[in-house]
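Notebook, p. 212. Picked up where the previous page left off. The plan for this session was modest: take the two constructs that came back from the sequencing core last week, fold each one, and keep the raw output in the notebook itself so nobody has to go hunting through shared drives later. Recording the first one now, exactly as returned: residue sequence, then the structure token string.
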Amino acid sequence: MSELLERLEREVLPLVARPSRYTGGEKNVPVCDPAGADLSFLLAFPDVYEIGMSHLGIRILYDILNRRPDIAAERTFAPWTDMEAQMREKGVPLFSIENHRAAREFDPEYKQQTRSAATGPAQERGYQACGGERSVPTVGVRDS
């Protein structure tokens, strides 16, 4: 479990309606190892989770990107007003729902600095390999 998710579960999610909008873990959506990908995307939808997940285009784009073994795509959605207020009050950044990574972590320089700090194989950290079939947001990062 990520440090950000632990903080969300402890300090923020008990105070908002529909906390499941922000936790991820949907069925049939494998979580890719972002450290093992050459290109990492944060696909951002400008509305709440329920609206974004009903948008066929975002689901298709997410699926196409994650079918490639060299790409890891994650999603984020606009927080509802109660969550936005809590995030601002507690200094919580916008984050992906798959790995609960802050949006700023999708910056190329951040990824380059943290890639070497990752420990253990991806399988030990509970990730599945990217690529292959799956069903189901936009800042792109390419390593140099």
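Okay, moving on. Second construct, recorded in the same format:
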Amino acid sequence: MCRRNGQQGQSLATLHTFGYDDPPMDPAEPADPRVSVRRRNMRLRSGVVALLLLLFGAAALWTWHERALTKLGELFVEETPPAPADLVAVFDNEVPAAAAAADVLANGYAPRILLFKPPPAAEEKLLDRLGIPVPSRHELAILVLRRSGVAPEAIVVEPVTEVDTSVAVQTTARYARSHDATRVIVITYRSHTRRTALLLRRALGRSAVVIVRASPDDPFHPEGWWRDRRQSRELIMESIRWVNSLLLGDLWRK
């Protein structure tokens, strides 16, 4: 009995010697309190620097946001000064675009206007079934041109599969090559002008002259587009069209 109690006492003494009865130390806690204070000070300084940078960035964005957003809008716009050309292509068949094309002819810059005739839309088919006489978009453009004094023989209508910038570019290039037209004026949406110019110059070749214009009544303006929901939506959609046309090879038509 005494021998056993002696062995137990010796074991307890051994455990106490190796520190097994001490509370475990947190490995994340530094042994020296000064190290913990130093780390907290470093985190505090880093937080203050990050906050100052955030405030500076917000102030810079507030100060120069109009200039930066205007530059962003200008990336999508190219409006070349008018010059003599062989024809005017109206890419969107809208009334303001048709009126702008009529002004181009009235000022003597081109002898004829090219319009595009897509298949009837669903609403046009419905109106036709109901017997409601409503002109299609290209017919309305022709009415605007005729009322603006454009002669019938100066209006050319080319059928297309759909209303699309890439389709209009290919149709215009095909017509221009078949009629020896090397100088082309295009009337399109202002937000489409730069992409249209790039695609048409690629299709016609380096020797061709491409002049891209928008109607004066076009609602998109690089200055202040972010204040209007419609213009903001149009800029976002045009960004997607750039990706589709230049990076994806017009995936939507495949």
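Notes on construct two before I forget. The first helix runs from residue 2 to 18.
Flagging for discussion at group meeting.
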